[in-house]
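A quick aside before the break. I want you to see a complete sequence-to-structure record at least once, exactly as it would be stored in a machine-readable document. Don't worry about memorizing anything.
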Amino acid sequence: MTFCGGAQSVTGANYLIETETGQKILIDCGLAQGSRFAEDLNYAPFSYAPAEIDTIIITHAHADHFGRLPKLYRDGFRGRVLTSNGTRDVMEQAFPDNWQHIAEEAKFSGHPPLYTEADATGVMELVEGLDYYQTVDLGQGNSMSLLNAGHILGSSLVHLEINGKVLGFSGDLGNSGSLLMPEKDFIKDADYITVESAYGGRIHEDKTEREAKLLEALMHVVAHKGALMLPVFAVERAQEILFVINKLVENKIIPVLPVFFDSPLAIEMTRVYRKHQSEFNQAARDLIASGDDIFNFPGLRLTESVMESKKINDTPGPKIILAGSGMSTGGRILHHERRYLPGPDNAIVFVGYQVDGSLGRKILEGQRHVRIYNESVAVGCVIKAIGGFSGHADQPQLVDWVERANESGKLKKVFLVQGEDESAIALSEAIKAKISVDTVIPKMGESFEL
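That is the input. The structure line, written in tokens, reads:
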């Protein structure tokens, strides 16, 4: 197994398994994001021949796990793409939006686009949507199945059986107590597992605080007639925030006020979520069954066109703006941040992970001036981060997941990926304090014989 991406880095997941008989299987093919080296990493040639890959398994539809799939296709890949039904549907909506960003970035960078629209269309034709727990024959006596990771719609753990050995991959593990997703599954018979470590050194704040903290920021802008900016990921976080605001409005905890859902992609993803609501947790399904439209409430306005988005400025506060991207690395949120970051009557609330180097991270770390569209923008608004909305498991949950993977007693090695060094080291120490197992923090390009 070779770690071609996602090693000592939160983003860019890409793991290659080569069998004794020459079969080549990839787990994920994600974009590097956030760091100043991300563009170079994304444009760099793959460290393997894409045309020789037999199968790629996508754990979920976040760009750092599937974003380079069209580039893989462009460079010769024509094998099978296996993923969950939910992930397939999310990817289908995400690719056109991703392509627009790729084309825009190419104009500014001077690089040719990372891939073409035809590459994205072509690779989608190779995608096979699977049910959870469905066993798929990979040939040569090898097989795989997907289990629920509890992270976002369609997110999966990978249970891979190669030559009688079980390899488990966490993808991104969900945070317990998700508003929409069911609890994550466990792989209990693994010989080797590869597990994410984004929050390997952290313990999330109490989930009961997430609504209270959001309400605190919201009441600030209500009192001062300001704007509340919520940078959201189009998948999961946007839907969770709609769910919470729906509850606050319908229970009359907050007044009805303009809530602008200013992300065409997130709007489309919410339609995908409606299609897959049978995959929600029991509490969310019960609400829907009672007649509650959990993603709709008085005051909500969908601003799909550019003109509608621009008109948000004409609406006086108080108002709420949900827009992408979740790390403020692009998208419509940048226009709102340029306008509203300086004002003390306004607030920005981060409800997702902010990778090192991202604009969101810079704001969160207290930089008083940031650059947006090559302009210096003062930061004078209220700034909050709510960890309780995190879609990632924290250290206790990650350790528990690894412990459960060792229930069979045959776990030989744990590979810690998708985390900054400090997080991975902290998780390694926490695991070793609980169970006797070899933990490894692989370097980029490092290979291991299993």
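Two observations worth writing down. Residues 85-109 form the longest helix (25 residues). DSSP finds 14 helices and 21 strands in the chain. We'll return to this after the break.
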